[in-house]
Amino acid sequence: MSDQDDIADAPDRQAGEAVWRTLSRLRSGRPLVHCITNYVAMDINANALLAVGASPVMAHAAEEVEEIASAAGALVINIGTLDKLWVTSMLAAAKAAVEAGVPWVLDPVGVNATPYRLEVAKRLTRLQPTVIRGNASEIATLGASSASGGQGVDSTIESFDALDAAQTLARKSGAVVAVTGAVDYVTNGRDLVAVANGHEFMARVTAVGCTLSALVGACLAVSDDALDATVHGLVIMGIAGEMAAERSQGPASFRVAMIDALYRMEETQVEEAARIG
Amino acid sequence: MSDQDDIADAPDRQAGEAVWRTLSRLRSGRPLVHCITNYVAMDINANALLAVGASPVMAHAAEEVEEIASAAGALVINIGTLDKLWVTSMLAAAKAAVEAGVPWVLDPVGVNATPYRLEVAKRLTRLQPTVIRGNASEIATLGASSASGGQGVDSTIESFDALDAAQTLARKSGAVVAVTGAVDYVTNGRDLVAVANGHEFMARVTAVGCTLSALVGACLAVSDDALDATVHGLVIMGIAGEMAAERSQGPASFRVAMIDALYRMEETQVEEAARIG
Amino acid sequence: MSDQDDIADAPDRQAGEAVWRTLSRLRSGRPLVHCITNYVAMDINANALLAVGASPVMAHAAEEVEEIASAAGALVINIGTLDKLWVTSMLAAAKAAVEAGVPWVLDPVGVNATPYRLEVAKRLTRLQPTVIRGNASEIATLGASSASGGQGVDSTIESFDALDAAQTLARKSGAVVAVTGAVDYVTNGRDLVAVANGHEFMARVTAVGCTLSALVGACLAVSDDALDATVHGLVIMGIAGEMAAERSQGPASFRVAMIDALYRMEETQVEEAARIG
Question: Structural domain tally of chain B?
Answer without folding.
Answer: 1
